[in-house]
Design a protein that fits this description.
seven-stranded mixed sheet, alpha/beta, single chain
Length: about 220
């Protein structure tokens, strides 16, 4: 199985408490499953998301908040034998169950790891696409999370968010709020598409300019 090089936080990195708090509700993690896989496939969800996100054979992608692995296994099929997938979750039991699935289905190009709520702990300059699917509203420290995520994106790479257009405490993220939180950490939105098949919309972001210092980041109010 492919293994990513371990990524260790540097001592000078800011702590989560150095970043502003989210000025909006944070949804609880209620289930590792957004909907059953057959229903999602009948709607063409993963295929449409991967097409619109520009996922191609040979890419290296990350599935953050991977849950039971709906996207993980489909991303592995799309990127093929020359591509790589890193599936991450912050719940140990969920991570372990996904690792068992990856082993059972012999997904040799997939690695599974445990992340932290405010830091996905991804290797630097490694990913063409990083997927945050139906989970952004569950991130309690979005500015710390996005700040720690930035170095993992390759030049020309994108962070892909799939979510519903509704308040965060109703398991969605209003697009204007999403734009604001990403922009606060130095990302620019490069795509936004309505996607009923995926429960709402798809937004794509690219890092732009220098990553701001933690104490220079201004929190976004609810929109």
């Amino acid at each position: 199985m492919f293994l990513f090089t371990a990524c260790h936080a540097q001592p000078q990195n800011p702590r989560s408490t150095d970043f502003p708090s989210a000025e909006r509700p944070v949804a609880s993690i209620v289930s590792p499953r957004w909907s059953d896989e057959d229903t999602r496939d009948r709607a063409g969800e993963a295929t449409e998301v991967m097409n619109r996100a520009g996922v191609k054979p040979g890419m290296t992608v990350a599935d953050i908040g991977a849950g039971e692995g709906y996207y993980t296994v489909r991303l592995a099929a799309r990127v093929g034998a020359k591509g790589r997938v890193l599936a991450q979750d912050i719940v140990p039991e969920v991570r372990d169950a996904l690792a068992e699935r990856v082993t059972r289905e012999r997904l040799d190009t997939v690695s599974v790891k445990l992340g932290e709520p405010d830091n996905p702990e991804l290797p630097e300059n490694s990913f063409d696409r990083i997927f945050l699917v139906h989970m952004y509203h569950e991130i309690a420290s979005p500015y710390a999370f996005l700040w720690n995520l930035r170095p993992a994106v390759k030049s020309g790479g994108r962070v892909i968010v799939v979510d519903a257009d509704r308040p965060t405490n109703q398991h969605g993220t209003p697009p204007k709020l999403l734009d604001c939180e990403f922009a606060a950490v130095g990302y620019a939105r490069v795509d936004m598409q309505v996607m009923p098949s995926a429960g709402g919309y798809l937004a794509a972001y690219e890092p732009r300019g220098l990553r701001p210092e933690a104490d220079a980041i201004k929190a976004c109010g609810t929109r």
